[in-house]
Design brief:
13% of the residues lie in helices and 43% in strands. It is mostly beta strands. It has a single domain, classed as Hemopexin, CATH 2.110.10.10. The protein has a four-stranded antiparallel β-sheet with strand order 1-20-19-18, covered by helices on one side. Strands 2-3-4-5 form a four-stranded antiparallel β-sheet, with no helix packed on it. A four-stranded antiparallel β-sheet has the order 6-7-8-9, with no helix packed on it. The longest helix is centred in the first third of the chain and has 30 residues. The termini are far apart.
C-alpha cells in the first residue's frame, strides 16, 4: 500500500509539474502587454477549487470563494486560516437548489455571498456566512427575479451606508441597489455605457470597482451617483476567443492598501482552468 501511495504521489507531482509549466507558458501568451502588477500569488490543482470565483478582505485576511467553497487566508496567501469545502448547506440546496457560489463581499464579521441555482435562474439569493468560521449563519435573502433574471453573479457591500449592490449577468447597462438589512430593493443605477460580464466588485469612495470577464478581463469603476464608467486597466491583451472563456477567465477583486503600495487585488483563472492567481496592482 505504501509503495502504491508513493507511486501515485510521484505521478501526481509529475502531472502537476507539467501542468504548471504548460499553463505558465499559455498564460504568458494571453497576458501580453497589459497593466503591470507588483506581485502575484498563484495556486494550481486542487487549491484552485477554493480560489476560483472571487476575493474579498477585512483588512487582516483575504477570503476566497470557489463554486462550492469558502477559504480564508493570511494576506500573504500562504497560510489557510479557515476552510469550508461544502459551504452551500443542505437547507439551501433543498429550498433553492443552490449550486454555485459567485462573488463575495465582507462587512462587520460577515461574508455576503451570491448564490445561484446554476443556469436555472429561479432563486438568486444572498447568503450570510460567519467570517471567523466560514459557516453559514442561517440567514439568506431572496432577490427579485424581475431584476435578477439570470441569477446573481456578485454582490458588493457598502456597510457604512447600509446598502449593497448587485447586477444581472452577461452585459450590464444597469446595476441594482438594495438595503443591507433585508435586501429590499431601493433603486436602479443606469450606466453610461455597457460593461460586459462583471464577476465581482467592491465599493470605495462612492465608486464600484468591478472585475470583469470581458475580452480583456478589464477592471472598471462605476460612479454610483452618475453611473459614469471608467476603465482602469486590462488584465490580458489577447482578444481572440474561439470559444467562450478561451484563455482563462477574469474573476472578481478586492481593495486594500498594502505596504508595497498596491491597492487593487484581482483574481483570475489561468488558460487551462487548473490554476488561479491573486495579482496586486498599485492603481
Amino acid at each position: 500500500m505504501v509503495i502504491l501511495v508513493n507511486s501515485i504521489n510521484k505521478a501526481l507531482a509529475v502531472i502537476f509539474s507539467f501542468l504548471l509549466f504548460f499553463t505558465g507558458s499559455l498564460n504568458s501568451i494571453f497576458n501580453g502587454d497589459v497593466a503591470s502588477y507588483e506581485s502575484e500569488h498563484a495556486v494550481i490543482g486542487l487549491e484552485t477549487l477554493t480560489r476560483s470565483q472571487d476575493v474579498t478582505t477585512d483588512g487582516e485576511y483575504f477570503y476566497f470563494s470557489g463554486k462550492g467553497a469558502l477559504e480564508k487566508t493570511n494576506l500573504s496567501c500562504d497560510k489557510i486560516i479557515a476552510l469550508n469545502y461544502n459551504a452551500i448547506p443542505d437547507e439551501l440546496k433543498e429550498k433553492y437548489n443552490s449550486q454555485h457560489i459567485g462573488g463575495i463581499s465582507y462587512y462587520d464579521g460577515i461574508i455576503y455571498a451570491a448564490l445561484e441555482d446554476s443556469k436555472e435562474w429561479n432563486y438568486p439569493i444572498i447568503a450570510l456566512y460567519d467570517a471567523e468560521t466560514l459557516e453559514y449563519t442561517g440567514t439568506c435573502f431572496e432577490l427579485p427575479t424581475t431584476l435578477q433574471t439570470r441569477g446573481v453573479p456578485w454582490v458588493a457591500v457598502d456597510g457604512e451606508n447600509g446598502v449593497a449592490y448587485t447586477g444581472d449577468s452577461r452585459n450590464y447597462t444597469e446595476i441594482y441597489k438594495f438595503s443591507l438589512s433585508d435586501f429590499t430593493y431601493i433603486e436602479t443605477i443606469t450606466l453610461s455605457s455597457e460593461v460586459e460580464k462583471i464577476q465581482g466588485a467592491e465599493i470605495a469612495d462612492g465608486k464600484l470597482y468591478a472585475g470583469t470577464n470581458d475580452m480583456k478581463r478589464a477592471v472598471f469603476t462605476i460612479d454610483l451617483t452618475t453611473g459614469e464608467i471608467t476603465k482602469l486597466f486590462d488584465r490580458i491583451a489577447y482578444e481572440y476567443k474561439l470559444i467562450d472563456n478561451f484563455g482563462g477567465e477574469g474573476e472578481g477583486l478586492t481593495l486594500l492598501p498594502m505596504e508595497d503600495g498596491t491597492y487593487i487585488h484581482t483574481l483570475q483563472l489561468g488558460a487551462l482552468f487548473v490554476d488561479s492567481s491573486l495579482r496586486h496592482y498599485k492603481s
